[in-house]
Amino acid sequence: MIITNFLFKARYLLLCVALLGLTVHKPAYSRTYSAAVPDTVTITLADFLTLATEQSKELQARRQNVELARNTNAGARNSRILPNFTLTTAHGLIPGVKSRDDMDLPSSQLYLDPSLRNDWEDWAFFNQFEVTALQPVYTWGAIRNAIKASQAGINVSLFEFEAEEQKTKLQLFQLWQGRLLAVELDRLTTEAERTIEMAERELIKLFEEGSDEIDDADFYQFEIFKFEFEAQKEEVKRNLEVLERAWAIALGSRDSGIIYIPDERFLDPLDAVIEPLETYLAHAAVSRPELRQIEAVRDAAGFGVDAQRAQMFPALFVGATYRYAYAPNRPRQRNPFISNAANTESLTVGLGFRQNLNFLQLQNRTDRAQIQLRQAGYALEAVRDGIELEVSDKYKDAQIARTRLSSVERALDVSRNWLRQEQLDYDIGFGEIPNLIDAFTKNLELEAQQKQYIYDFNVRLARLLNAGGFRLDQFFTTNTADL
Questions:
Q1: In 100-205, where do the E strands start and end?
Q2: Domain count for the chain
Q3: Using one digit for the tens of pLDDT, what is the confidence trace for 139-191?
Q4: N or C: which end of the chain has fewer CB within 10 A?
Q5: φ and ψ at 27, to 5 degrees?
Q6: Is the separation of the CB atoms in 334 and 280 below 8 Å?
Q7: What CATH number should be reported for the domain holding residue 147?
Q8: Which domain holds residue 455?
Q9: The model's pTM
Q10: How far is the CA of 85 from the CAs of 57, 136, 139, 318, 321, in angstroms?
Q11: Is 30 within 8 Å of 55 (Cβ atoms)?
């Protein structure tokens, strides 16, 4: 039956509309902003990506890893100048001294009195200060390589952050495309609703005219279909609400009362030429942040091996110690061979060597650093292979999406010609309403397919660009046809 065929194709349209639910991705995170109406602000894709990434708490947390790496590097650099520079003080009460034999000796010669004892009736405050400084002169490259390793650590954190940032922007782009797809499917749903109303009127008209093309079963099927359509229409509405909430979370506008809407009202395919696979592979080999991150890990491991190996040799340093102690009831002894710890002043400066004699432990640390270096080398090769496979896979997906979109666009052109012909025939009185309904339904079905395929193509192309190491924010602010 003609009406049954209409119901089957209309259900296919609803399945396409239901695919809207698959476009809602986790909110990542997006200033322009020309007000369209009060509390409604339009925003471009470039600004959406910028503002949302600024709002991303995950990116803010990862940015702290970069700051920690810079702090570590600053500590390594500061170790070149007086890495050991300490001040130690001591304070308390101390008894004086007296002679039991009452020997008449100058205060500077009291150490000659064999009967000198503590005077427990004479107390005074005792203060002592000791400053120790140690300056490396030559460490066989230990400090230099430690600084280089920490600098490579900064690069590791920076490239890790860049990789996460690009991942977030890809999710944001999908969220942007999902919002445009939601608008398009909502429009198609409205058109489908008008088609259903028209089909119902014509169905009733044919039944009242006693047409033998329909029977009671057609009415029952149509009523069931209308209830199913209402459920699908409600799903589209709820999906739109979820997308709007996701945008508010991404842009941090939940409490501001501002509603952001995209400056684009239609979902169109990206104006970009898919270059040969080798173009993306070559660009990924030099631009992917994950690859550069592992290269920085390998560099850090290499500097770590040199730094650990330097620990096997004695380090030359200059040391200095200044000590001052004073107690008013304890006279200072000037004899260089006699020291009064409670009242003295001394300065010691000299060269020295420092050597860790636990050579087995030192060798173990060096072996560990070499293992880490080999591990980084293997990881680098694994990442290169993984990136090549990822780029090839995303390239295949983009090519398939482009072919599928091209096919449905050609089919949609045929469908539009068919619909125009049926409308023309119906207007001049030669057409049949079931044929017009069938043509209109097929056109809606193909339009829904086209919008879904446009979304798939745009998202898969963005994934290909991301896999190839292209920055999406730069891609959307330049001539895409040149990439």
A1: 116-138
A2: 1
A3: 999 999 999 999 999 999 999 999 999 999 999 999 999 989 888 888 888 87
A4: N
A5: -65, 125
A6: no
A7: 1.20.1600.10
A8: 2-482
A9: 0.76
A10: 40, 12, 18, 12, 10
A11: yes
